[in-house]
């Protein structure tokens, strides 16, 4: 059983939802990334989404675009990101890690070499933003052969037929993009998001995670009432950007942000369990 599947199975038995935290590898400096990853886990993160910096991150808003620029200024490459995962694994062999990025760096390295190295360094899943299922025929089998989960995005505008096709190709979990826009943008309409998540759940038994627009404990708690996981990224990156020159305060602020989200999500789960027992 993969780390991702094990993680969701363990959380389900405990009636808890997954907190998935995103950071960009190499931001604000490559030497800090492993420390940041351990801090995410200490603060209650269940799955780490590690961004591979790219020069043209089309799905990312200004906050994560700036993070990619800072990482690239230190020449953080896909090779470095894989080395970072290997270093993290020397102390944490349990937390699932999903690499999130774009297809270009993978193509440059070579899909087979990338997948084999990712497996060796104990990556668990791959989310390639600009790889639609229609163009993933050559990629999905390679990842499966190397025990890497294929995680695809579903948008608010995705049709029912395409949702079904995406779910069939997915493993690990399905990622629902809650906003029509880029990361960190817009106002989250939770009723609309809930409706779409329920539609997705009819097409798959995989856990459904929701990202884009979750900024604080309040929004995390609301989404946790119907989603299996919430994904937070821009809110963490803002703390990294603001406190780039003060590591201790940066880590403290991130811990506070995620701990508050974790509490809000666990309160929702606790209330749901109480309601079930009363019923």
Task: Provide a short characterization of the protein structure.
By secondary structure, the chain is an alpha/beta fold. Helices cover 51% and strands 13% of the residues.
Structure report:
It contains twelve helices and nine strands. The chain has helices at 3-13, 30-42, 62-73, 78-89, 103-109, 111-120, 140-145, 160-169, 190-201, 217-223, 234-242, 247-278, and strands at 18-24, 47-51, 97-101, 125-128, 149-150, 153-154, 174-177, 208-211, 229-232. A nine-stranded parallel sheet has the order 5-4-3-2-1-9-8-7-6. The two termini are 34 Å apart.
CATH C-level name: Alpha Beta
Helix segment tally: 12
Order of helices and strands: HEHEHHEHHEHEEHEHEHEHH
Instruction: Profile the largest sheet.
Output: 9 strands, parallel
Number of domains: 1
Which percent band covers the strand fraction?
5-15%
Which fold name fills CATH's third level, the topology? TIM Barrel
- Given helix and strand content, the structural type is alpha/beta
| CATH architecture group name | Alpha-Beta Barrel
Query: Largest sheet, order of strands side by side?
Result: 5-4-3-2-1-9-8-7-6
Bulk shape: globular
Query: Count of DSSP E strands?
Result: 9
Instruction: Give the % helix.
Output: 40-55%
- Measured between the Cα atoms of the first and last residue, the distance is 34 Å
> pLDDT under 50 segments (min length 5)?
none
Radius of gyration: 18 Å
Mean pLDDT: 92
Going by CATH, the homologous superfamily would be Aldolase class I
Write the layout of secondary structure elements.
Elements (H helix, E strand, L loop, with lengths): L2 H11 L4 E7 L5 H13 L4 E5 L10 H12 L4 H12 L7 E5 L1 H7 L1 H10 L4 E4 L11 H6 L3 E2 L2 E2 L5 H10 L4 E4 L12 H12 L6 E4 L5 H7 L5 E4 L1 H9 L4 H32 L1
Parallel strand pairs: 1-2, 1-9, 2-3, 3-4, 4-5, 6-7, 7-8, 8-9
Helix pairs in contact: 2-4, 2-12, 10-12, 11-12
């Amino acid at each position: 059983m993969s780390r991702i599947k094990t993680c969701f199975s363990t959380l389900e038995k405990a009636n808890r939802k997954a907190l998935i935290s995103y950071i960009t590898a190499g931001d604000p400096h490559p030497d800090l990334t492993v420390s940041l990853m351990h801090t995410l886990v200490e603060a209650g993160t269940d799955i780490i989404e590690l961004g591979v910096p790219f020069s043209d991150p089309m799905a990312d808003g200004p906050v994560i675009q700036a993070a990619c620029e800072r990482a690239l200024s230190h020449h953080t490459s896909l090779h470095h990101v894989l080395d970072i995962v290997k270093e993290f694994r020397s102390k944490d062999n349990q937390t699932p890690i999903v690499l999130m990025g774009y297809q270009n760096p993978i193509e440059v390295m070579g899909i087979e070499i990338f997948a084999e190295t990712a497996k060796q360094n104990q990556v668990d899943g791959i989310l390639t933003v600009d790889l639609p299922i229609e163009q993933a025929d050559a990629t999905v089998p390679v990842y499966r052969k190397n025990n890497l989960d294929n995680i695809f995005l579903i948008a608010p505008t995705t049709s029912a037929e395409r949702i079904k096709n995406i779910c069939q190709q997915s493993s690990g979990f399905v990622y629902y993009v809650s906003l029509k826009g880029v990361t960190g943008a817009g106002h989250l309409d939770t009723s609309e998001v809930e409706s779409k998540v329920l539609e997705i759940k009819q097409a798959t038994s995989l856990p459904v995670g929701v990202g884009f627009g979750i900024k604080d404990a309040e929004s995390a708690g609301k989404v946790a009432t119907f989603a299996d996981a919430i994904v937070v990224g821009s809110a963490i990156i803002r703390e990294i950007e603001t406190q780039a020159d003060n590591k201790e305060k940066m880590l403290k602020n991130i811990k506070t942000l995620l701990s508050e989200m974790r509490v809000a999500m666990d309160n929702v789960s606790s209330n749901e369990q109480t309601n079930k027992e009363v019923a």
